[in-house]
Amino acid sequence: MSIELTRRDEFAVIRIDRAAALNALNYEMLRAIGRALDQVESSDARAVFFIGAGEKAFCAGADIGELLGRSIPDEYAGTRLGQEIYSRIESFPLPSVAIVNGYALGGGCELALACTFRLGTAAARFGLPEVKLGLVPGYGGTQRLPRLVGMGIALEMLMTGRMVPAEEALRIGLLNRIVEGDPLAAAIQYARAFSGHGLLALRLVRDAALRGRDTSLREGLRIEADLTTISMRSDDGREGARAFLEKRAAIFKDR
Ligand code: CAA
After folding, report:
1. Residue 105 CA, ligand 1 centroid: distance in Å
2. Which atom of ligand 1 approaches the CA of 61 most closely?
3. Any catalytic annotation for residue 130?
4. Atom 35 of ligand 1 has which residue's CA nearest to it?
5. Is 61 exposed, middle or buried (CB count within 10 Å of its CB: 0-12, 13-18, 19+)?
6. Which of 149, 166, 191 is the last residue of a domain?
7. Ligand 1 centre and the CA of 63: distance in Å?
8. Same domain for 177 and 214?
9. Residue % of the chain over a pLDDT of 90
10. Ligand 1: which of 2, 17, 18, 22 to mutate, judged by most atoms within 8 Å of the beta carbon?
């Protein structure tokens, strides 16, 4: 099995299980991630984690062996498949956490970029080395990296293809946190800081930030006003305010 879906407590765990090829993703694996997301979406999980099998890699990118010998329509369709799966992760109803336990290169780095949060072990290494192959990243790297770390650093990474180690990734905002010990246990502890909040508010607040990122401040404020209003009219919004006034813990229903 190359994509494994399991459960740890209230969290879904999608493990890329192809350690012999440093968890490089072929198209079948991308489709399997899509199917795993279908299952997670219909479960009661509170967040979804992505992790790589083995000690060495989160994911070393697209399977380079699959990149050659295809027609232009097939190449385009393959790129769009990766983009669609990653965009689905970005706007998934549940928050996502990439647990970067080694190399996150090319499509692996882009997978981490699509997640809501990125945790790394000391072994985490981020890079978009496609230029070294004479290629351009195709699963969102040229778009999400500048938005996350700024254009100057992004262009340096994109145009040199160099790998960024964990400490530097933390400094430039590519990593949210460096974790020690069992990375999955650390991710559970990290996610518990938000997993008790209502899923509706979590989704709306993330959507406001992400949709606002791609537009003007004026338009972003309109988006914020819309989503704030939706949250105020939601059961959870009413329950949260009521619970505060009644000095008790809120009981959210994710709607
Ligand atoms: N695709 C297919 N196989 C890969 C792979 C990839 N992206 N990355 C590693 N592998 C395979 C190697 O071919 C090797 O297989 P064999 O044992 O059968 O020879 C195995 O994984 C172990 O790799 P190495 O022997 O190379 O391990 P290393 O420790 O010497 O080097 C590495 C590690 C620096 C990560 C190196 O493997 C490497 O540079 N990998 C390629 C990284 C890369 O260029 N990724 C971008 C891919 S293109 C892309 O992702 C496009 C996009 O935007 C979607």
Report:
1. 9
2. 50
3. yes
4. 60
5. buried
6. 191
7. 8
8. no
9. 98
10. 22
For 30, counting Cβ atoms within 10 Å of its Cβ (0-12 exposed, 13-18 middle, 19+ buried), the class is: buried
- pLDDT (tens digit, 9 = 90+) per residue, 24-69? 999 999 999 999 999 999 999 999 999 999 999 999 999 999 988 8
Ligand 1 neighbours (beta carbon < 6 A): 21-22, 24, 60-65, 82, 103, 105-107, 110, 129-130, 133, 137-139, 141
Whether residue 24 is found in the same domain as residue 81: yes
pLDDT at 69: 85
| Residues 185, 211 within the same domain | no
- Regarding whether 118 and 210 lie in a shared domain, the answer is no
Q: What percent of the chain has pLDDT over 70?
A: 100
Question: At 133, which CATH number?
Answer: 3.90.226.10
What amino acid occupies position 166? A
The boundaries of the domain holding residue 218 are: 199-245
The mean pLDDT of 250-254, rounded to a whole number, is 95
Tell me how far the alpha carbon of residue 139 lies from the centroid of ligand 1, in angstroms. 17
* CA-only gyration radius of the chain, Å: 19
Residue 168: what residue type? Answer: E
pLDDT tens digits for 79-99? Answer: 999 999 999 999 999 999 999
Instruction: Assess whether 55 carries a catalytic annotation.
Output: no
Q: Are residue 143 and residue 228 in the same domain, yes or no?
A: no
210 and 179 belong to one structural domain = no
Q: Is 26 exposed, middle or buried (0-12, 13-18, 19+ CB in 10 A)?
A: middle
